[in-house]
C-alpha cells in the first residue's frame, strides 16, 4: 500500500515537474519567437543606419576616379560638365532627383540596378541639375513595396557655375502665389551656396532684406516669406554675387490670393433673362477661385442628346483691388433658335480638386 502511495506521489511529482519544464520551455519559445521575426525584419535594424547616419555613413556615395568612393553628406559641391556616378548599396533601391530631369525626359540620366547596388549616372551635368538627389532602400512584402524611411539618404548637389549663379529656370517669368496662411517661396536657388543673395522689388525699386524671422534665404529653396501679406505683391527678382559682377534671376510676379480652398463657388445666369421660342440664349456658369486651381464643367440641359449646342469654356486671372487675384473660370452654353424642348432646367456642375458644386437655372418661356 505504502509503495503504491509513494509511487503515485513520485509519478505525480514527475508529472508536475515535467509540466513545469515544459512551461518554462514554452515561455522560452515564446520569447524567442518574439525576437525572431523582429530580428528578421530589416526595419528593426533601424538603429544601425541611424547611428551610422549620424557619422555621415550614408549609403549614398559618389564614385570617384580610380574606383574610390565618397560618401555624400547633406550638401555636395560639384563641377558642371563632369559626368557623375552615384551609387546606393542594396539590391532594391529607389531614387529621386530634380524633377527637371524627368520633365524633359533627359537621356543624360540613367539608373541601373545590380545585385549589390544601384547606380545613377548623369552625363554632362549643368547648373540646371542643381538639386536634391536621394536614394532609399525599397522593402517588399510579396508584391507590396514601400520606401524604408529609415534608410533614405539625400544630398543636395550644387553644380557650381560662375556664369550661372542662379539655377536656370525654363520659365522666364514665374508667378508666385501669396496666401495669408502659408509661407511663400520666391524660388531663386543658387548654384553656389557661398553666393550672397538679395531680393528686390522692381517698382518701386526696393531691396527686401532677409532677416531671421519674416524673410529668410535658403540656397536650396530661395527666399521664404513667412507670412505673406498684400504689401508683398509685385514684380521681384533676386540678385546674387560671389566675386565678379552681380547676376540677376528671372522675374517673379507675386500675387496675393485670399480665396479659401474648397469646392467651387459657382454662379449661373442666363442672358437674356427672358426668352421665347426662336430666341438665342447664353447660359453662363462662372466660378471664382484660386488662381492655380483648375475647374472643369459638366452641363445637363433639356434638349440634351436631341439638339446641338455650343459650349465655350475659358478662364482668366483678374486682379480685384490691390489685394486679391482671382481666377474666373467660365463655361458659356449657347442655344440658338430656342424650341419647346429647350425650356426647362439647365444644370451646371463645376468641379475642382476640393469638390464639386451643382447649380440649376430654370429657363421658362415668356
Ligand atoms: C522618354 O524616354 C523613353 C526612353 O528614352 C521613352 O520610352 C518614353 O516614351 C519617353 N517619354 C516621353 C514622354 O517622351
Ligand atoms: C524682417 O523683415 C520684414 C520685412 O522686410 C520686416 O517687416 C520686419 O520688421 C523685419 N524683422 C526684423 C526683426 O528685422
Ligand atoms: C452670347 O454670347 C456671345 C459671345 O459672348 C455673344 O456674342 C452673344 O451676343 C450672346 N448672346 C446673347 C443672346 O446674349
Automatic annotation (TrEMBL):
Occurrences of domain Ig-like (ranges): 263-360
Gene Ontology cellular-component terms listed: extracellular region
Location in or out of the cell: Secreted
Signal peptide: 1-21
Assembly information from the UniProt record: Forms a complex composed of PDGFRL, TNK2 and GRB2.
InterPro entries hit by this protein: Ig-like_dom, Ig-like_dom_sf, Ig-like_fold, Ig_sub, Ig_sub2, PDGFRL
UniProt GO MF annotations: identical protein binding
Keyword Glycoprotein: yes
Keywords: Disulfide bond, Glycoprotein, Immunoglobulin domain, Repeat, Secreted, Signal
Chain positions covered by the region annotation Disordered: 31-57
Listed name of the protein: Platelet-derived growth factor receptor-like protein
Biased composition (Basic residues): 37-47
PANTHER family: PLATELET-DERIVED GROWTH FACTOR RECEPTOR LIKE, PLATELET-DERIVED GROWTH FACTOR RECEPTOR-LIKE PROTEIN
Naturally occurring in which organism (per UniProt): Seriola lalandi dorsalis
Keyword Secreted: yes
Coiled coil: none
SMART domains: IG (SM00409), IGc2 (SM00408)
Amino acid at each position: 500500500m505504502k509503495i503504491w502511495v509513494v509511487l503515485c506521489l513520485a509519478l505525480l511529482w514527475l508529472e508536475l515537474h515535467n509540466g513545469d519544464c515544459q512551461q518554462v520551455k514554452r515561455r522560452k519559445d515564446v520569447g524567442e519567437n518574439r525576437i525572431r521575426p523582429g530580428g528578421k525584419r530589416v526595419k528593426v535594424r533601424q538603429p544601425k543606419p541611424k547611428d551610422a547616419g549620424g557619422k555621415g555613413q550614408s549609403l549614398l556615395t559618389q564614385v570617384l576616379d580610380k574606383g574610390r568612393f565618397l560618401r555624400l553628406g547633406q550638401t555636395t559641391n560639384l563641377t558642371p560638365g563632369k559626368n557623375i556616378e552615384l551609387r546606393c548599396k542594396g539590391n532594391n533601391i529607389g531614387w529621386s532627383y530634380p524633377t527637371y530631369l524627368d520633365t524633359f525626359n533627359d537621356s543624360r540620366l540613367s539608373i541601373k540596378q545590380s545585385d549589390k547596388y544601384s547606380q545613377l549616372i548623369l552625363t554632362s551635368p549643368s547648373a540646371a541639375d542643381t538639386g536634391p538627389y536621394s536614394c532609399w532602400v525599397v522593402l517588399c512584402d510579396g508584391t507590396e513595396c514601400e520606401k524604408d524611411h529609415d534608410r533614405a539618404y539625400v544630398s543636395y548637389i550644387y553644380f557650381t557655375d560662375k556664369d550661372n549663379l542662379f539655377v536656370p529656370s525654363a520659365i522666364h517669368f514665374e508667378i508666385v502665389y501669396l496666401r495669408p496662411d502659408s509661407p511663400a517661396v520666391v524660388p531663386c536657388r543658387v548654384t553656389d551656396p557661398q553666393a550672397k543673395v538679395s531680393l528686390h522689388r522692381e517698382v518701386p525699386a526696393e531691396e527686401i532684406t532677409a532677416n531671421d524671422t519674416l524673410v529668410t534665404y535658403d540656397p536650396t529653396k530661395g527666399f521664404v516669406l513667412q507670412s505673406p501679406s498684400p504689401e508683398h505683391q509685385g514684380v521681384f527678382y533676386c540678385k546674387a554675387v560671389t566675386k565678379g559682377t552681380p547676376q540677376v534671376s528671372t522675374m517673379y510676379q507675386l500675387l496675393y490670393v485670399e480665396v479659401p480652398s474648397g469646392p467651387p463657388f459657382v454662379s449661373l445666369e442666363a442672358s437674356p433673362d427672358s426668352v421665347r421660342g426662336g430666341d438665342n440664349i447664353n447660359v453662363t456658369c462662372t466660378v471664382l477661385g484660386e488662381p492655380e486651381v483648375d475647374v472643369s464643367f459638366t452641363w445637363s440641359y433639356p434638349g440634351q442628346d436631341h439638339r446641338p449646342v455650343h459650349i465655350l469654356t475659358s478662364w482668366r486671372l483678374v486682379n480685384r483691388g490691390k489685394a486679391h487675384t482671382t481666377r474666373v473660370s467660365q463655361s458659356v452654353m449657347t442655344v440658338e433658335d430656342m424650341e419647346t424642348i429647350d425650356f426647362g432646367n439647365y444644370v451646371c456642375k463645376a468641379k475642382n480638386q476640393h469638390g464639386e458644386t451643382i447649380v440649376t437655372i430654370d429657363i421658362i418661356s415668356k
